[in-house]
Amino acid sequence: MTAIPSALPVLILHTGDPDDTLKSQFGGYADQLAQAAGLAPDDMEIVAVHAGQRPRPPSSYRAALITGSPAMVTDKEPWSEDTAAWLREAAAAGLPMFGVCYGHQLLAHALGGKVGYNPAGREVGTQTVELLPPATGDKLLEGLPPTFPAQMLHAQTVLQAPPGSAVLARSDLDGHQMIRIGRNVFSTQFHPEFGPDFILAHLERYGRRYAAENLDVPGLSANVRATPVAGSLLRRFLDAYAPA
């Protein structure tokens, strides 16, 4: 009997991790992304590009997800620039992709946008995301409320979206919270994969540093809450653009 070929795996481009304490408690960024996307081990291939691993050609996958990272896109580290080149190749090949935080910025950088430090400062904690008119009619966002809470954790941001892209959402501190490039490449500055427990633990761990930046850490911690709408986006993306 001939075996029925299984669906191609989803690639997770792993670009970094939280510190060891948070990682031991909550898992690495690739693990958190896989969990939020509803991926079983057999459904995915995690490639730790930040550790020198390289993905196979884009045709080997049915979609690619790109994680967050403590690294900065503007440092243009060799592994990051190599990954940007792969993302250009994948976009040209029509591969559905979804980048988060660093992944959002790296996609923008790779495809002609501009990344740098957010002029409005660091954005952290649970903040409100507002959908913009270009989001209307997109099957990924169909039926979502016009505003919803999402978890934030970034200092750099997309300063200029890539040519021909659509800006789908904003927040008070960031005009590029969600971008669509072409038909099936999406990215969010916010983190669909983070739960409130992770954000609270992060705020506790880095509270002193953030207080030195004049952030209201007790206020940010008190505002942390669940983000089910944002948290649904990775699964919605795979269901809509890369079903198994």
What does this structure look like?
The chain is of the alpha/beta class. The protein has eight helices and eleven strands. It has helices spanning 20-26, 29-37, 78-92, 102-110, 196-212, 217-223, 228-231, 233-241; strands spanning 10-14, 44-48, 63-66, 97-100, 114-117, 123-131, 147-154, 156-160, 166-171, 174-181, 185-188. The strands form two sheets. A nine-stranded mixed sheet has the order 2-1-3-4-11-10-9-6-7, sandwiched between helices. Helix 3 (78-92) crosses helix 4. The radius of gyration is 17 Å and the shape is globular.
Oligomer: single chain
DSSP summary, beta strand count = 11
Instruction: Strand order, main sheet: write it out.
Output: 2-1-3-4-11-10-9-6-7
Distance between the termini: 22 Å
Q: Figure out the total of helices.
A: 8
**Shape descriptor:** globular
Beta-strand percent range:
25-35%
Radius of gyration: 17 Å
Class per helix and strand makeup: alpha/beta
Please describe the biggest sheet, giving its number of strands, its sense, and whether it closes into a barrel.
9 strands, mixed
* Residue windows where pLDDT falls under 50 for at least 5 positions: 1-5
Mean pLDDT: 96
Residues in helix, %: 25-40%
Helix and strand pattern: EHHEEHEHEEEEEEEHHHH
